[in-house]
Design a protein that fits this description.
Elements (H helix, E strand, L loop, with lengths): L1 H37 L7 H29 L1 H4 L3 H10 L22 H31 L2 E2 L5 E2 L4 H22 L11 H19 L5 H9 L2 H10 L7 H20 L5 H35 L3 H23 L1 H11 L1 H28 L1 H23 L5 H39 L9
Antiparallel strand pairs: 1-2
Helix pairs in contact: 1-2, 2-12, 5-14, 5-15, 6-7, 6-12, 6-14, 7-11, 7-12, 8-10, 8-15, 10-16, 13-14, 14-15, 15-16
C-alpha cells in the first residue's frame, strides 16, 4: 500500500538523518581528539588552542549543517512525521504561525512614570552597569594574569580561556531561562539553528577577549575595544557602501591618533614584550571582527523574528554551552579545571562572581537600551571604560607614561564627541520632521516627550 511505502521512506530518511548526526559527530570527535595528541600545546601557543577549539566546534556544527542540507533537499520538513520530524522543524524551520510578538506586551511599557521615577531608574541602570562590568573587568584580568595561592603555599596560574567562556555562558543561560519563566514572552518563531551563527562568533570574541590578556595589558584591551568604530566604518564603506557624517571621520581620526599615542608611550618595553604585544593585537583584531558580526546577526534576528531579549539570550547561550562543553571534553580541560578549582577555592569564587556579573550586566544592558535608548547606554558604558582603565592601573600597577595618558584622553574625548554630535543631529532631524508635520496639520501638532 501507498501508506506503508511512504512510512518506509520516512523511516529511511530518519535512519539517514541519524547516521549523519552520529556518524559525522563521532568521526569528527575522534579526529579532533587525534589532532590534539599530535599538536603540542603549551601555555603560550594561542594559535594551537584556537585550532583545537575550532575543531571541537566542528564536531557539532558540521553534522548540523549536513542535516540542514539534507532535510531541505529531501523535503523531510514537509512530509516527516513523529518526534524526530518535530525536532527537525524546531531546529531548522521554526514556527510558521502568524502570531505577532506584540501580543505579549510587558506591563512596564504601559505604565507612565514620573520624572523622579525616571531618575531613580536611570541611577539604578547606571550603578548596575558600572558595578557589574567594573567588577567583571577586574576579575577577568585577575583570573587570566595573576597566580593563585593554595593552603600549602603553592602557586599556579589558570590559562584556559574557553573554560571561563563556558562558565559565563551556562550561568547566563540559567538566568535567561529563569527570566523567561517569570515574565511573559512572545511566541518564539525563529529556527533554533539561526542562533548558532552568532553563538559561535560570540564564543570566539569572548575567547579572544580573555586570551588577549596574556599578551596585552587590560588598559590596552579596553582602548582597543573603544576603537571598534574604525573597522566598523571600513567594513560599512567597503561592503555596504554606507555613507558617514563628517564628524564620524573626525572621530575615527582622533581615535587613531589616540591609539598611536597610547602605544607609542608603551614603546619603551623590551623586544620580547613587543613580540607578545603583536600577538595580542592580532587576537584583539579577531575580537573586534567576531564581535561586530555578533551584533549585526542578532540585530537581524530581532528584526526578522521579533524575538525577545531573553529568548535571544537563551538561544545564543544554549548553543554556546553545547559548543564549548564538547570542545572542553575533547581536550580534557574539564578535568584539569576541576582539579584547579579543588586546589584553589579562591578561583571558584572568582569564576562565580565573574559569571554573575556578566549575566546581570546583560540584563542591565537590555533594560537600559529599552528604557532610555542607545545614547544614554553608550554614555554610561563609555564612562565605565574610563573607570576600568583607572581601576586596572590602580589595582594591578600598570605604568602609564605621559604620552599614553594623552592618548587615553584623546580617545575618550573622541568618543564623547561622537555621542554629542550624534545626539545633536538626531534632535535636529526630529525637530525638522516635527516642523514639517506641524505645518501640514495647520499648526495643530503636539510634541510628545
Amino acid at each position: 500500500p501507498k501508506y506503508r511505502r511512504n512510512n518506509y521512506n520516512m523511516n529511511q530518511q530518519e535512519v539517514k538523518l541519524s547516521s549523519i548526526l552520529l556518524g559525522w559527530g563521532v568521526g569528527l570527535y575522534l579526529l579532533s581528539y587525534f589532532l590534539q595528541s599530535l599538536l603540542s600545546q603549551d601555555e603560550n601557543s594561542w594559535f594551537v588552542s584556537l585550532l583545537l577549539n575550532v575543531s571541537g566546534y566542528a564536531t557539532i556544527l558540521l553534522p548540523g549543517y549536513l542535516c540542514l542540507r539534507y532535510v531541505r533537499d529531501s523535503g523531510y520538513l514537509d512530509r516527516g512525521t513523529g518526534r524526530l520530524a518535530s525536532v527537525m522543524r524546531l531546529l531548522y524551520q521554526g514556527r510558521q504561525d502568524t502570531i505577532e510578538a506584540e501580543e505579549l506586551i510587558s506591563q512596564d511599557n504601559k505604565v507612565s512614570r514620573t520624572a523622579l521615577q525616571d531618575a531613580a531608574q536611570l541611577a539604578l541602570c547606571g550603578v548596575g552597569l558600572q558595578v557589574s562590568y567594573l567588577t567583571w573587568g577586574l576579575l577577568q584580568e585577575k583570573i587570566m594574569t595573576r597566580e593563585y595561592v593554595d593552603s600549602a603555599g603553592q602557586t599556579d596560574k589558570f590559562s584556559d580561556a574557553q573554560f571561563l567562556v563556558f562558565v559565563n555562558r551556562i550561568l547566563a543561560f540559567a538566568v535567561a531561562l529563569l527570566a523567561m519563566m517569570l515574565r511573559a514572552q512572545p511566541r518564539h518563531k525563529a529556527p533554533l539553528y539561526k542562533y548558532s551563527y552568532c553563538s559561535l562568533s560570540n564564543i570566539m570574541s569572548s575567547w579572544c577577549q580573555y586570551e588577549a590578556l596574556k599578551y596585552v595589558s587590560f588598559p590596552t584591551q579596553v582602548l582597543a575595544k573603544a576603537s571598534k568604530i574604525i573597522p566598523v566604518m571600513l567594513m560599512g564603506k567597503v561592503v555596504s557602501r554606507k555613507t558617514y557624517e563628517f564628524y564620524e571621520y573626525i572621530v575615527a581620526v582622533l581615535i587613531s591618533l589616540g591609539m598611536v599615542a597610547f602605544l607609542f608611550g608603551k614603546g619603551e618595553s623590551s623586544r620580547s614584550d613587543s613580540v607578545t604585544t603583536a600577538s595580542g593585537v592580532l587576537i584583539l583584531v579577531g575580537y573586534m571582527a567576531f564581535d561586530s558580526f555578533t551584533s549585526n546577526w542578532q540585530g537581524q534576528l530581532f528584526s526578522e523574528y521579533k524575538v525577545s531579549k531573553f529568548q535571544m539570550m537563551a538561544g545564543v547561550n544554549l548553543f554556546s554551552c553545547l559548543l564549548t562543553s564538547v570542545s572542553l571534553l575533547q581536550q580534557g580541560v574539564f578535568l584539569t579545571s576541576l582539579v584547579f578549582m579543588s586546589q584553589f577555592p579562591a578561583f571558584v569564587s572568582d569564576c562565580v562572581i565573574l559569571s554573575l556579573c556578566s549575566a546581570v550586566g546583560q540584563i542591565f544592558i537590555y533594560h537600559t537600551i529599552s528604557t532610555f535608548g542607545p545614547v544614554v547606554f553608550t554614555i554610561i558604558m563609555t564612562i565605565r571604560q574610563v573607570f576600568a582603565v583607572v581601576l586596572s592601573c590602580v589595582f594591578y600597577g600598570h605604568a602609564v607614561s605621559a604620552t599614553s595618558l594623552i592618548g587615553i584622553f584623546i580617545i575618550f574625548f573622541a568618543l564623547f564627541l561622537k555621542i554629542y554630535c550624534a545626539y545633536k543631529i538626531k534632535q535636529r532631524r526630529k525637530a525638522g520632521a516635527g516642523g514639517v508635520k506641524s505645518g501640514s496639520s495647520g499648526g495643530a501638532g503636539v510634541i510628545k516627550a
